[in-house]
Recover the amino acids of this structure.
């Protein structure tokens, strides 16, 4: 049962988390949610990211953006790490989304084979 | 993609977001007695001229530049017509827009309501500055949700934290389920 009381508890733990964060920085995940992204299946990806992040308490924010300008690579998920490094993951499905959270956000390892660079290389247009 | 009622509502909510609304109200009246599901989406966005409102549900009307057809309103209108219902747009420039659709509840063509919690979560997430009110009203019960109240309780902590967004989705769906249960008792 969800109750409004839960919100007070979530507020407390959110404030605690902010206090404990080194340098106040956190991971940020951005999902392309323009028409092209949605048509390619960005909605279930977004929803899975929010759910998994909440359930596993990853230190990470999940946000939406418009068209990233690479429609053929949608769904696109961009990850910004705590140092501002930026990785673009392409053709992301809910399964890949979970792995990105586990390996990149959870352990700090970029999953090279899911990146736009790998996709371009596979297509031969580097 | 466009199977359930929630997906249609999401398109209309996205229109309200695009129109610069600061408050969006979604009201679903789900009445077994009257055999009707009524959906109202009310925003205080930029509104439309009378001329625009009159043709907005025509698929060839869109202010988009990225594609030539606009589908949100025309699909919603099509859904209402298929399901023995009604469709109406009331809009005033500078004031806002109200989209009202009804469908017959016990009609073989009427799809499932779908995941209302999820589409509201998604809309809230797309722009953290917009406030939402949601009402789900059955013959005997009502559930009310209001982001203003949530913000007050959170007192400075963002609505957009994943755990809060997920809570919102679950809380809304729980509220709908409870209102439905009491309706059938
Ligand atoms: N809530 C609203 N406020 C202002 N204008 C709106 C609203 N909803 C729809 N419109 C106008 O009607 C047009 C058609 O809407 P829609 O059928 O959803 O197609 P699309 O969003 O793809 O253009 C929009 O482009 C917009 O100009
Ligand atoms: Mg639209």
């Amino acid at each position: 049962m969800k109750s409004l009381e839960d919100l007070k508890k979530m507020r407390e733990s959110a404030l605690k988390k902010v206090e404990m964060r080194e340098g106040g920085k956190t991971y940020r995940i951005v999902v392309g949610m323009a028409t092209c992204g949605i048509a390619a299946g960005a909605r279930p990806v977004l929803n899975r990211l929010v759910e998994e992040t909440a359930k596993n308490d990853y230190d990470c924010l999940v946000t939406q953006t418009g068209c990233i300008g690479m429609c053929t690579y949608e769904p696109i998920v961009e990850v910004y790490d705590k140092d501002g490094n930026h990785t673009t993951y392409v053709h992301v499905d809910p399964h890949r989304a979970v792995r990105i959270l586990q390996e990149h956000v959870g352990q700090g390892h970029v999953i090279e084979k899911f990146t736009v660079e790998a996709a371009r290389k596979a297509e031969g247009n580097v | 993609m466009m199977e359930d009622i929630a997906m249609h509502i999401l398109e209309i909510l996205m229109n309200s977001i695009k129109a610069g609304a600061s408050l969006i109200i979604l009201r679903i009246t789900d009445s077994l007695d009257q055999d009707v599901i009524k959906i109202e989406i009310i925003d205080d966005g930029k509104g439309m001229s009378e001329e625009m409102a009159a043709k907005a549900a025509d698929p060839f009307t869109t202010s988009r530049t990225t594609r030539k057809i606009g589908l949100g309103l025309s699909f919603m209108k099509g859904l209402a017509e298929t399901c023995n219902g009604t469709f109406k747009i009331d809009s005033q420039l500078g004031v806002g827009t109200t989209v009202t659709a009804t469908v017959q509840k016990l009609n073989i063509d009427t799809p499932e309501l779908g995941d209302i919690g999820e589409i509201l979560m998604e809309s809230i997430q797309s722009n953290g500055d917009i406030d939402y009110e949601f009402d789900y009203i059955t013959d005997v019960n009502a559930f009310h949700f209001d982001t203003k109240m949530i913000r007050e309780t959170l007192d400075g902590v963002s609505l957009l934290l994943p755990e809060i967004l997920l809570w919102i989705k679950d809380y809304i769906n729980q509220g709908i389920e409870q209102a439905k249960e009491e309706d059938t008792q």
Chain A touches chain B at residues 1-2, 4, 6-8, 10-11, 14-15, 33-35, 39, 43, 46-47, 49-51, 53-55, 57-58, 60-64, 67 (CB under 8 Å). The longest strand of chain A covers residues 27-32. The mean pLDDT of chain A is 92. Chain A is about 45% helix and 15% strand.
